[in-house]
Design brief:
- The chain is of the alpha/beta class.
- It folds into two domains: about 400 residues, Rossmann fold (3-Layer(aba) Sandwich); about 110 residues, GMP Synthetase, Chain A, domain 3.
- Helix content is about 30%, strand content about 25%.
- It contains 16 helices and 25 strands.
- The strands form five sheets. Strands 2-1-11-10-12-13-14-15-16 form a nine-stranded mixed beta sheet, with helices on both faces.
- β12, α11 and β13 form a beta-alpha-beta unit.
- α7 crosses α9.
- The radius of gyration is 24 Å and the shape is globular.
- The C terminus is likely disordered.
- The chain binds adenosine monophosphate.
């Protein structure tokens, strides 16, 4: 046996602290601007951020927190939350971001499952803490992200974050950690069953930050001012808090006010060039600019993901406002970025409509992640843009098991995403459904996302969901549930006629129901399970428009 010839390069472990250290040294004066829950705008720099993150690390160590312990956060996008991203992980503890929009019972379940020893919370969640704290007896302390003067009256005894930090001097060296150590913990939104934990490592987080920053991924640079609307409590705000430090971009954190006006004001005053969020947020922002006649004077690009970006939204951003949309797909189990739309040289020469069709898909993988689609027999399906299959992924920032679960979710070393998709010869992914949401009509699959996208393109439609409805002959047929835009009107017949020529005839819904609002999950996704329950007894009209 010959001994392999080893490279002779430094064995520097990939640690999350290296990102904030880099930003503090090489983008030290670059600003981090936050709209605080106290109501004002706070400004400081990466240099200040690293110092306070070190003070936080010292404070936690003084409280007796050891490496590996989990520290929960219940917080908006703000500078103190960012300090937790670096201060907690920097000395080896695990930053566990919790979605405050979940039900209190789910939050208590998550805190207990993660075994959080301390929980940092924004004061807006004080009432929530009082409900959850009695159900989490193992939490040693609740730390309000505020000074003493801004802590509201609570039944739960709490510590002040600012008082804890004031007792420390920030004279602290980040220790060198084994890069395989856990850094962050995020739970899936858990639309079915209990939420499951994805435990990222320092290595996976740093590699994800590099991948996310690439020109054909988020494409961040030191010339950007980045406003992540996607919350830091949902999959690490798609890795943006790490990627901005890596690239030295200015960071603008919007706090709790995510309505169209608040976001637009902040984008304009801070001259934001780049943003990211789920379609529901952009729906509100677009409605605001549409109604007020406002424009975006500096915004160049926005990433839309978390749910399929409706083509109508993409077109409005680009055609009316000149903002480039980057459609992205990913999931908690993938840190979360998997694919983003980027056109290569040849694709960008194609006619507009062809380019648009590509941009409406979910895009191509970031190098590092690989994907394939498989049929019911587990065999890989062709990459022809036609064959539908279960999407499997693998890569260094994809989980190999859930936190505190022995069973491996992997199939032949690949992670089954639960999404159904096609992959075309350009390597572009097109998500057609969650596997449990797919509509099976007469043995054939109908993509509920494609059906919804047509409805949303109608000027009178604000939001639409397509679900399966039981049918005696075809097993399932599509039912469209629609929220109309304020002040607009459309009939069932007009909406069905709108489908003519846009999808295969047998994909046209059998019925349309108008509702005031649609149910959403805590991360802004349509809650189709709930919708299916709501319309379980819905009787479809006897005549089927397209199925015959
Ligand atoms: P989460 O783990 O909460 O981020 O949810 C991940 C799931 O959201 C994915 O498995 C998809 O079902 C869905 N999803 C995320 N991005 C997109 C997208 N661009 N288009 C369609 N579905 C998406």
């Amino acid at each position: 046996m010959t001994t392999p010839l080893l490279g002779q390069m430094m064995d520097v472990p990939l640690n999350v602290s290296s990102l904030v250290r880099h930003a503090a040294r090489y983008a030290g004066d670059t600003e981090i601007v936050s709209r605080r829950v106290e109501g004002d705008i706070h400004r400081y720099t990466y240099r200040d951020c690293e110092k306070r993150a070190k003070q936080l690390a010292q404070a936690l160590i003084r409280l007796g927190v050891s490496p590996g312990e989990r520290i929960g956060t219940l917080a908006w996008n703000g500078y103190r939350h960012l300090e937790a991203y670096y201060g907690v992980t920097g000395f080896g503890a695990v930053c566990h971001t919790i979605n405050p929009r979940l039900f209190p019972e789910q939050i208590a379940f998550i805190i207990n499952h993660a075994d959080d020893s301390y929980v940092l919370f924004d004061t807006t969640f004080a009432a929530l803490v009082d409900v959850v704290a009695p159900q989490c007896p193992k939490v040693k302390g609740w730390i309000a992200l505020a000074d003493e003067a801004h802590i509201p009256a609570l039944a739960t005894p709490v510590l002040s974050y600012e008082t804890l930090l004031a007792a420390e001097d920030g004279d602290f060296e980040w220790p060198v950690l084994d890069e395989r150590c856990a850094s962050n913990l995020c739970y899936t939104s858990g639309t079915t069953g209990n939420p499951k934990g994805a435990l990222y490592s320092h290595r996976s987080s740093v590699l994800h930050a590099y991948g996310a920053s690439l020109p054909d991924a988020l494409g961040l640079s030191a010339r950007d001012a980045v406003l992540p609307v996607v919350p830091m409590f949902h999959v690490n705000a798609w890795g943006i808090p790490h990627a901005v430090a890596l690239t030295g971009a200015k960071l603008v954190l919007p706090g709790k006010d995510l309505d169209g006006k608040s976001l637009h004001d902040l984008m304009e005053t801070e001259r934001v060039t780049f943003s990211a969020g789920v379609p529901t947020v952009w729906m509100c922002l677009l409605q605001y600019v549409r109604e007020t006649g406002k424009r975006f004077s500096t915004l160049e690009r926005t990433v839309i993901g978390g749910s399929a970006c409706p083509p109508a939204m993409l077109r409005e951003f680009e055609d009316v406002y000149g903002v480039r949309v980057i459609h992205a797909w990913g999931m908690t189990e993938m840190s979360p970025l998997g694919t983003l739309v980027r056109l290569n040289w040849e694709q960008s020469q194609r006619p507009l409509e062809e380019r648009r069709q590509l941009m409406e898909k979910q895009g191509a993988v970031i190098c590092g992640v690989d994907m394939k689609i498989v049929g019911a027999d587990g065999q890989e399906l062709p990459r022809d843009g036609v064959a539908f299959g279960d999407l499997h992924v693998r890569g260094p920032w994809v989980i190999d098991r859930y936190f505190r679960s022995e069973a491996s979710p992997l199939v032949d070393g690949w992670f089954p995403t639960g999404d159904v998709a096609t992959i075309d010869r350009d390597g572009f992914l097109h998500i057609t459904d969650r596997s449990k949401d797919v509509i099976k009509s007469g043995g054939e699959w109908i993509s509920s996302i494609d059906v919804e996208n047509v409805a949303i393109a109608h000027p009178a439609v604000a939001e639409a969901a397509c679900i399966a409805c039981a049918h005696p002959k075809w097993t399932e047929r599509p039912l469209l549930v629609v929220v109309k835009r304020e002040g607009e009107n459309v009939t069932r017949e007009a909406l069905l006629a709108f489908y003519e020529g846009k999808v295969a005839k047998w994909w046209i819904p059998d019925d349309v129901v108008f509702v005031e609002q649609l149910p959403h999950t805590a991360t802004g996704k349509l809650q189709k399970l709930k919708l299916r329950e709501m319309f379980r007894d819905h009787v479809l009209p006897a005549e089927i428009a397209g199925a015959a």
